[in-house]
Design brief:
With about 400 residues, the chain is an alpha/beta fold. It has two domains: about 230 residues, Alpha-Beta Complex (Spore Coat Polysaccharide Biosynthesis Protein SpsA, Chain A); about 60 residues. About 40% of the residues lie in helices and about 15% in strands. The protein is built from 16 helices and 13 strands. The strands form three sheets. It has a seven-stranded mixed sheet with strand order 3-2-1-4-8-6-9, sandwiched between helices. The chain has a three-stranded mixed sheet with strand order 5-10-7. The N and C termini lie far apart (about 65 Å).
Length: about 400
Amino acid sequence: MIKISVVIPTYNNKRLLKNVLEALNDQLDIERGGYEVIVVDDGSNDNTREEVADIPRTYPFHYVYLERSPDSCRARVRNEGWRRARGEFVAFLDSDMIVARSYMRELGRYFTARPDMLVISYRYMLKEPIAFEEVKSGRVFQQNYRSLEYLEARHFDSQLHSFNLSALEHPWHCVYSCNMALPRARLEQLGGFDEGYKGWGMEDTDIGYRCYRLGMRIVSHLGIEALHQYHGEAYGDLRSVEKMIEWDLNITRMYRIHPSLSRELPRWRINAAYFARRVPLMLMRRERNRTERVYIVREEADIPALQAEIEALSSQPGYLILVKDELESSSLHLWIQLLGYTPSEIRYFPRSYMFEPAEINRFFGKVFPWRKLFVLIYRCLRLLGNKLVRSVHRSNPLPTKK
């Protein structure tokens, strides 16, 4: 019986896709036939189907080819995939994401604890291409990627707001479809991804927001982090003007179709947070004058007593609870997130994910030099100019010829 369906959208990405499919072979502690993989090709013209056809597979595999059209978009491809899925749960991976052999086991463990939630995880940004044999042999996972040079933006955000997404004012903003999973029944209820989003960005944030409005827990799982294969993109790279324009159009659309967003998170705050690199502060709770309590987790045997104390304390307002987990217990991490948005905020910090602020600042100084910041300002000004032109055209449409 298929429990989990993995949907992988792709477009002219055959070399990276081969690694992704190989990594999904021989998943641990899940019965044979317990998961399937569905690749949805959004009109590739690089012979992707032929390139991946000869990969030995230990799972049911389906390849769907869509012709390119004006309706082509990321949302359409993902919708085509999950609607063909037979699993109770649907996981979405991008075609450049390599997962460990424990991926299915860890995902299943979370959904066994609570079936009705949206699970997301993070990426390690690789710096050079990965050979197929490195994936097949498992050597690619023998390296420790938990260092500043491989982290993605959400890793750095979590240094401040912590890895407890339930404590955030706006956890849906952390939802990226490159590595996420949720029940198929919820996708049916939501109607899937909104295909009105064209170009780059926001179709995954939108579905995260709609899940959040349904009352679903949005949780992170550090046990299913993926390796983002290098193909010319690294942390700190600036988005092109074209991508910035597409993102702006899509976020404008999201605010138009969800009027409540303007009250929950004013649009200007998003623009300011991205420009000033203050996204985590935008997502965090803003209570003041709280009594701080720190819990350090060192022994497995101490966890039940700590849980009882944390649950009692968090049910009362007025506290800021900091959990520093030296064991990095994934069960404790999930338990804290399933407590939800508690009257007193709980922040969770696993030991090996935390870095000294001075170390992070030095790293940012290398990644975001002044020259790059000037380029960012220039691109933002171009974006504003583009918005102004669109606004003028809407206000003064050209007369139609008779």
